[in-house]
Amino acid sequence: MRATFVIDPEGVLRAMVYYPMNVGRSIDEVLRLVTALKTADSAGVAMPEGWTPGDAAIVPPPKTVEEAKARESEGFDYTDWYFSKKKIA
Asked: What is the number of structural domains in the chain?
């Protein structure tokens, strides 16, 4: 097995990706992973599978009805009242 470890500046292991010895590693995927982790941390969102910069990210659910209503005019894409996405630059 081969493994790639992503460790943040505080020394916290953020990701482990394992590959069989006979399969190459994707540097593009490792870079996408690091970018997604940095963006998730700075924007306070979660990234869906395959996220790339400019794609929508999953935002935390609204805490109040008023916050949910306010999101309607802020460009959020709703699946349900508690599950919404928004484009993160």
From this structure: 1
Q: What is the CATH number of the domain that holds 54?
A: 3.30.1020.10
Task: Domain of residue 70: give its range.
Answer: 2-87
CA-closest candidate to residue 55, choices 63, 42, 45, 65: 45
Looking at the chain, the number of H-run helices and the number of E-run strands are: 2, 5
Whether residue 57 contacts residue 51, with contact meaning beta carbons closer than 8 Å, is answered with yes
pLDDT value for 30? 93
Distance between CA atoms of residues 9 and 11, nearest Å: 5
- Residue 54: CA count within 13 A, CB half-sphere: 0
**How confident is the model at residue 83, as a pLDDT?**
66
The count of residues in the chain is 89
